[in-house]
Amino acid sequence: MTQRVFRSSKIVASYWRELSFEAAHKLPEHPSVHGHSYRVRLIWSGIIPTTGQLISEQDALAACSAVSGLLDHKMLNDILGDPTCENIAKFILCREEETHRASRVIVWRPTVGDGAEVCGV
Ligand SMILES: [Zn+2]
Taking the CA atoms of the chain, what radius of gyration do you get in angstroms? Predict the structure, then answer.
């Protein structure tokens, strides 16, 4: 059995932070306004810098706080078109100022048991 050895410069790490928000929406297949509890995971990936952190804890917390500020207790249809989990995740990922350039976003609804993940390419 051979053991695989990686050079540290070839190892990519991911760090994430999670947040929750509550919001209302309506969709074509569910046209009545209703609410969901959402969970969001912001993920930063890359080669581990000399600081040992892909993002500082302070910046990660600020990113989560900014996303909560944008979406918590809002009517999602007023903010983005067709607020599915996929579109919510895309909306969050595209707001680089708020997310401090997260490379992936996962949005899910724990009580429903579904979700979506988007990443930049
Ligand atoms: Zn819904």
Answer: 17
How many angstroms is it from 44 CA to the middle of ligand 1?
A: 28
For residue 113, being part of any structural domain is answered with yes
pLDDT digits (tens, 9 = 90+) for 36-67: 999 999 999 999 999 999 999 999 999 999 99
Q: How many domains does the chain have?
A: 1
Strands (E), 10-113: 12-27, 30-47, 74-75, 104-109
Q: Is residue 31 part of a domain?
A: yes
The residue-averaged pLDDT of 82-104 equals 93
Q: How far is the CA of 25 from the centre of ligand 1 (A)?
A: 6
Q: How far is the CA of 89 from the centre of ligand 1 (A)?
A: 15
Q: Which residue range forms the structural domain that includes residue 18?
A: 12-119
Q: Residue 103 in contact with residue 119, Cβ under 8 Å?
A: yes
6 within a domain of the structure (yes/no)? no
Given this model, what pLDDT does residue 1 score? 64
